[in-house]
Amino acid sequence: MDNGYNSSWIENFAYVGSKQELSIETSSGDIYTYKGVPFSVADDMAEADSVGKFHNQNLRGKYDCVKG
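Now predict its structure.
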């Protein structure tokens, strides 16, 4: 399935600017919410050639994350 994001792991993502939260829905249906993410990072993710690679390099381990 082509999700438009060039990622086999990330199905979709959304950003809530008022909370600075970026939520990622995985292909298995899990949701991860990263807290304290600036708009510029979410915007860069939306423009990334690979959102999976962007996630690994710019989100994982850099922002608090809650699963569920």
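The longest strand covers residues 10-16.
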